[in-house]
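Quick illustration for those who missed Monday's session on complexes.
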Amino acid sequence: MQGLTIEGVTAGYGATDIIERLDLGPLPHGELTAFVGPNAAGKSTLLRAIAGLVRTSGSIRLDGDELTRLSAGKRARRVAFMPQTPPDRLHLSVLESVIGALMVGPTDGGSDDRSPAESAMAALARIGLAERAMEPLANLSGGQRQLVGLAQALVRKPSLLLLDEPTSALDLRLQVVVMQLLRSYAREGNIVGVVIHDLGLAARWADRVVLLDEGSVVASAPPHEALTADRLNQVYGVACRLERCTRGTLQVLVDDVQGAS
Ligand SMILES: Nc1ncnc2c1ncn2[C@@H]1O[C@H](COP(=O)(O)OP(=O)(O)OP(=O)(O)O)[C@@H](O)[C@H]1O
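Prediction with adenosine-5'-triphosphate bound:
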């Protein structure tokens, strides 16, 4: 079967399971999925499990291939994961740090015979930082470093791109630029999954929203189906309204929070 399918996945740290017997998918090629939910819901753990970075059991199939049985190198050809923390080897140049992401092994990025430097420059151009390529990472702002992290994930041209809060340090304009970029990368035939706290951005740009709570999937559906006032009340403990703005985009308006003084 094409796409990403997760069945009976349990994942966690040490002896503690954060996610238990989780089923999800298939998430098809061409779509952008937003993973939302409260702090500590298990969003990052789920993405790390898919990327092979935490203790995981169960089945995670990409286009029918069992990812959990692939070697780390083979998995990295097909799956890229952008962590919450931006690149921190500050002495490297921006270009070097993106080239470094190519060095974990060969990619499945098509019949591209560009050099690593050319591929890295193309990824930097895509996120608008080509002109800063020769500068040390230390010269960049926090948001710009977060964009370099995105270039590191994109440069491998993974068919499954996973990103953990890629817009958390970005200004209003760049948040939209990144969401547009991720959707267009999905439309090129890839599967994109993004953890995001801003439900407005998720509703505006994602094809599907996966709402997680306490390590379980509460909803997995197009945004307007997944995000309902009742569910958000149950999961986040907020009294809220969902309204459509003039362009039809869903907006979440929080009126009150439970447990606040
Ligand atoms: N490296 C780790 N070792 C042990 N426990 C961890 C580790 N990382 C996360 N956890 C625990 O796993 C649970 C889920 O964390 P996770 O980071 O997956 O949640 P999240 O939904 O991404 O949260 P947030 O929105 O706050 O980033 C939390 O209780 C957290 O304490």
